[in-house]
Amino acid sequence: MVEEIELARRRRHSPWLILAVLCIAVLIVVIDNTIVNVALPTLSAKLNASDSGLQWIVDSYSLPFAGLLLAGGELSDRWGRRRVMQLSLVTFALFSVMAAESHSMTQLLIARALMGASAAFTFPATLSLITASFDDLADRAKAFGIWGATAGIAIAVGPIAGGYLIDHYWYGSVFIVNVPVACLTIALAAFIVPESRSPVVRRVDLGGLALGSVSVSSLVLGIIEGPSWGWLSAKVLALFVVSVLTLLLFALYERRLTDPMLDIRLFHSAVFSSAAAAIATSFFCLFGFVFLVTQYFQLVHGYSPLSAGVHTLPFAIVTIIATPIGAVLALRLGVRWIVSSGLVIMGGAMLWMTQFGAHAAYWGAVVVSMMLLAVGFSFISSPSTSALMGSLTAAQIGAGAAVNETTRELGGTLGVAVVGSVFSSLFGKSVAVVLAPLGFNHHDVTLAQSSMQAALRVVALSPTRSQGATIHDGLIRAFMDGFHRGCIVAGLTAIVMGALTFFFLPRLADTPGHVVHSLSPLQQS
Fold first, then answer.
1. 489 alpha carbon, distance to own chain's centre
2. What are the C-alpha distances in Å from 204 to residues 121, 209, 262, 309, 392?
3. What average pLDDT does range 374-388 have in this prediction?
4. What value does the mean pLDDT take over residues 151-176?
5. Which domains can be identified in the chain, with CATH numbers?
């Protein structure tokens, strides 16, 4: 009887209306990846956060998000995708209130981690519900494009929304804003979105959930803490060993099951693996860029949080325009050419950013490189998602959606961790070179090395005021040294990955939507 009611509801509501509701859910959980970026200088001052602390403010959300996505996909398949999405949005709203009321780094990081864990059960459900709501494969490809554009726009709009809230309210407003949006989404989903479950009834794969989550979480934690704990420290090496061992155990365990949470054999597909790698790389560059550029606008150019957010608006505008263009070009030229070109464009944009200095004009290299980055990103997301999801059966779409989003969150998390760590190491060394010869004591130099905000505070309290302008210029150069080196790492990664994926992504004849039946026999079963 319940299934008949849900089928009737699905027929009553257009799948495009369902998509609209699901995009709101996507918007709220994805925007939290970047909405805090413009608040980082404010949080650094209010909570005395170091550069590593600032990285954790961003990554404490992404880490549990990435680590629990496989669990989110599996449980939503079994318990009902709409139900899991609604329940996770309830907890997301509650933990957002907790984050807004935080008065210490510890409180904020715990709240952010719980928000990320909630988001991990929201996101896979949205992609699975889209797949289940669109029977026509061409419409489904368009829906994937809109879904991907929504995620990209949310990432781009985050700094603008965060900047407005920080300028007009207190720093907790960047979290409390989630509550009304979550409540609206829960209510709309109850009336519009039909329930959906995996057509295959199977037991909950607790072993797979545990092993998969531990493997991903250990890897991300080790990479984030590597720079501060030491890459060869016992703790970091132990985390990497745990990650590798649990990944191997996960693969062996899943291969033994008749109905595994994730069919490991999917990764034998060059299309599946290369599409996932392309998505991860695009988010690696994007998150690393957003982490640095919002601080660049505020700490170097002196923009307010709102102004810093508004200055990232060209990225959002170009993403809106270029995402559907990328999807169309992929159908006409093939996923291979468009996705690989997108990665090379993103890499080139990141390398170009190494050419502008502290006082570069915004309406020049800065905005052009930002727009090129958006074009490259837009060419990757939708075609890669379509290629990845096109290889899955109806029973695998929950786990497939989780893999798709895991690659995004892992890429983004690594972008902040790696690019942020490269920045911090170069910035710290340069700050010591500037301050140590001028008589600053070891304590002050060490404190100044922790972040640009801390360095500015140390200099402001220093009695060496006659050299204040010279010291400030030295700190700006230190910031730009770290900024440029971080951009080089991200840019070279994207270009290399673009060259590699070209040989494995689908040709024109194999592009989803061009001869879709050749890619989707499993979906039709």
1. 18
2. 15, 9, 12, 43, 19
3. 86
4. 83
5. 2-205+257-430+477-519 (1.20.1250.20)
